[in-house]
Amino acid sequence: MDKKKGSFTGSLGFILAAAGSAVGVGNIWRFPYLAAKDGGGLFILIYLVLVLTFGFTLLTTDIAIGRKTRKNALQAFGSISPKWGFLGKLTFLVPALIMTYYSVIGGWITKYLYDYIVTDGVEAAEDGYFVGFITSETLPIVFMLIFLLVTIWIVYRGVEKGIEQFSKFVMPGLLLLIIGIAIFSLTLKHTDTTGVTRTGIDGLIVYLKPDFKGLTLSKFLNILLDAMSQLFFSLSVSMGIMITYGSYVKKETHLEKSITQIEIFDTGVALIAGMMIIPAVFVFFGMEGMGSGPSLMFISLPKVFAAMGGTGKFVGILFFVMVVFAALTSCISIMETLVANCMEIFHAGRKKVCMGVGIFAVVTAVIICLGYNVLYFEVPLPNGSTGQLLDMADYISNSFLMPLISFLTCIFIGWVVKPGWIEGEMLENGAAFHKKRMYEIMVRYVAPLMMGILFLQSTGIFGFLGWE
């Protein structure tokens, strides 16, 4: 291995770092929102099936490619087949785009944590507070820089002293916070102005009970596609991160066992996050309180904390500490992927490259912040919505590039180099590969079909043809 590169000291460090990458803001707000929107337990059931099949296939492919080639995403594909080197370049684009805005969202979360620490949090629950904050010309930049500087410092310290140590400290704490707040949410009870009383258990039933009402084939396919897109957000696949982390994994690590543990950790956090958020929002606002994206985390939940009275400040602090941790672990993995790739491109040391990537991250994040004020404009997106700079970068990276990369990766592994290439790495040092047959079927047939559908959906072609 290149001496400039580090490695995880053992399987626990790898599992916690990879799980930290996977457990991000998407687990905290996107998974609960989709579960509420797409039939509660029905969405959860479909998602679990996809995690055990597609999730395992995509994670296995990325991590095995990284460990076998001992290279990062930019060069890994080209080292296997020069004709497929372009796939590494496509993969490099994803973290580069995500890096431009992830620290901006991290700054928003940091601002709310600051509010709950220094005030009672009541102001954060007022109508228009979130919009007023993000459209400010200076505050979003200040808090983005605080969040980003912490990220840069951890990546600057390297794999063992930075990423692994941070993950070993943060991930257990993150899990305890999520479980604690989830239990608290289930104990909530509130009577609204119409005299209707709702409890946390009522909200849990809304979350977990499968809703088959009005289910059609078209609706089922939309739920399936929602669950599959969440898989990309949740497991950090098809963006080079897991290839990079795989290149740091030692040969004696049992890959299948580690991958299964990563899936269990990540999916468990997503499920518990739903138990934490949906019952709390339901108790105070009913189904009308369920919003998507920023409105759930930055508008609905602060109102929930305000409605709790004296305990709201304390719960708000715990919640936003937890979300800051989740955002940091994901942002660290994104930056590490860029640093690792650039170390190979420029044949330079970690510290010098880290500073260069840090400057890129700061400049682009400032531009994204200004996209809500001095650089504000709206453009139509293929999914029918309109967006600003942040929305454009998010759409291109997550909705367009990631399904395309997954599709091409499955074609490459399934039909060009053949699944046996991956299987050989999984069986390294006499390790078992119990899901070998399933992996072969998924990577050759099922996954390319689904990835192709997701990619076509991202282009808006189904809507153009009147199929949505």
UniProtKB/TrEMBL annotation:
Chain ranges passing through the membrane: 40-65, 86-109, 129-156, 168-188, 220-243, 264-285, 305-332, 353-375, 395-417, 445-467
Presence of the UniProt keyword Membrane in the record: yes
Pfam families found in the cross-reference section: SNF (PF00209)
Keyword Membrane: yes
SUPFAM superfamilies, sorted: SNF-like
Keywords: Membrane, Transmembrane, Transmembrane helix, Transport
Compartment(s): Membrane
Membrane topology, from the record: Multi-pass membrane protein
Domain of life from the UniProt record: Bacteria
Protein name: Sodium-dependent transporter
